[in-house]
Amino acid sequence: MSIYSIIYHQFFKRHYFALTGPARVLPDFLIIGAKRCGTTSLFTHLPEHPSITSSHHDNMGFFNDNFNLGINWYRSFFIKKSHKKKIENKYGKCLSFDTTTTYMESKTTAQNVKKVKPDMKIIVMVRNPIDRAYSQYQRTIKDNIESRKFEDSIDDEIKKIDNEKEISFKINRNESNYIKKGIYYEQLKPWFELFPRENIGIFSTEEFKTNSEKIYNNIFDFLNLPHFTIKNNTIMEKGNYSSMNKEVRDKLANYYKDHNEKFFNLIGKTFQWTD
């Protein structure tokens, strides 16, 4: 969605919608991250399923940054209950969702979600954290946000993490956090503590790239929806850039090894992330 559309919904149309908040739905599931793992593709293409509707735009940040704006502000970004009823009458079910990749980054977000909707379903896309970090770095280079070499940026962050008593995921938006955002265990532990395992779906970016139809159908199974063929399944925001230096990759593989093992133990399955 363009910046003009976001401004339109955030500052103009939402004032009208907020008045109708009680007549609008809350989401049935959230896509909470991780960043640079395919969440934009899910936000764009999942609504092709006739039983799924999305919020007006992604990354609203209600449950972390905008919780103080109130539930009617949040509802203003979703369809009316009357529209939901029409979809249910036609297709049997209607689910709405919110995609915000920063939801993983704050321990209080899961608590806020639990307060609003205790039975919320959670979808997480995860990627080899080495590739995720490099993809984010390349995006910040493209956006003229980053000026350091990749190896310098990760060295700086690892030193900073080593100096912390505990890894904090109250993300400072002025920092890159290339490394932290790939430490999935620390980010997802609060969600597993508050929500039943069957309400959390973990999906692989690597498999999504090679067999998107399978992943979409796995997501539909998770949501208890019938399978549906997504015709326009183009990977959104796909980057093209040079390969990572092998020495740097080996350093990151060693750094993430224990963190990945903790994550695999948490979710009860293993991803074949090659070094």
Task: Write down the overall mean pLDDT.
Answer: 89
Portion of residues in beta strands equals 5-15%
For the record, the CATH class is Alpha Beta
As a whole number of angstroms, the C-alpha radius of gyration is: 19 Å
Which outline best applies? globular
Question: What is the CATH topology classification name?
Answer: Rossmann fold
In sequence order, what are the helices and strands, one letter per element?
HEHEHHEHEHHHEHHH
The structural class is alpha/beta
User: Uncertain runs with pLDDT below 50, 5 residues or more?
Assistant: none
Q: In the CATH classification, which architecture applies?
A: 3-Layer(aba) Sandwich
Number of helices: 11
Walk across the major sheet and give the strand order: 2-3-1-4-5
Helicity level, as a percent range? Answer: 40-55%
Largest sheet: 5 strands, parallel
What's the total number of strands?
5
Number of domains: 1
Taking the alpha carbons of the first and last residues, their distance comes to 35 Å
CATH superfamily: P-loop containing nucleotide triphosphate hydrolases
- The quaternary state of the protein chains shown equals single chain
